[in-house]
Structure formats: C-alpha cells, structure tokens
Specification:
Blueprint (H helix, E strand, L loop, with lengths): L15 E6 L2 E6 L14 H13 L4 H14 L8 H18 L1
Antiparallel strand pairs: 1-2
Length: 101
C-alpha cells in the first residue's frame, strides 16, 4: 500500500476496519468520523501510521496494563511507566523464580 500509487478512482477503504475478537466482529475507527474518510494518495501514510499505532499499542494496552498491575503488586515500590522498566521487571521476576525453584 505504501509503495503503490493510488489513483483518484481507486477505492481501498476508510479510516476504519473490522477486527475479529472473542466477542465477534469489532469495528475499529482510527480517527473521528473515520468510517466516512476514504483512504487516498494524500492520506494513506497517515492511515498506515494509525493502523500501526492501533495494532502495536492500542489493541494490547489492556493486556500491558494487566501485566503492569501484576508486577506492581509484586514490586509496589517500582514505578512501571514504560516498556523498558517492565522488561527489566520481567527479567528480575524470571530470575527470582528460577532461584526459588
């Protein structure tokens, strides 16, 4: 999509997409009124960026928050504000569990 030039008459979709979840089909709207905004040559890079942001962060945010809450319950003194700190904590917990076994 990024490397293909879109012509004026090309239609490839809107700033929204459907995603299959455990609860069925979920409509993901990437921007306000995204279901009404056609993807074209001028805005396709914005669409790609929004999809990447959604798929790499927004769609897993709840999962990451649950991990963060679980780690915080084990190490409440640590401020887990970014992925780097979460990674360090996971390594610490894994090392501690290995020594405990």
């Amino acid at each position: 999509m990024k490397n293909n030039k879109l012509e004026e008459e090309d239609f490839i979709g809107y700033f929204s997409f459907e995603r299959k979840t455990e609860r069925g089909i979920n409509q993901v709207v990437l921007v306000e009124n995204g279901e009404d905004i056609e993807i074209n040559e001028k805005n396709k890079l914005e669409y790609i960026d929004l999809c990447i942001k959604y798929l790499s962060y927004e769609s897993v945010k709840g999962f990451i928050e649950n991990i963060k809450d679980g780690l915080y319950s084990v190490r409440p003194w640590m401020d887990l504000t970014d992925f780097f700190e979460i990674g360090i904590s996971l390594c610490f917990v894994n090392t501690a569990l290995s020594r405990f076994r």
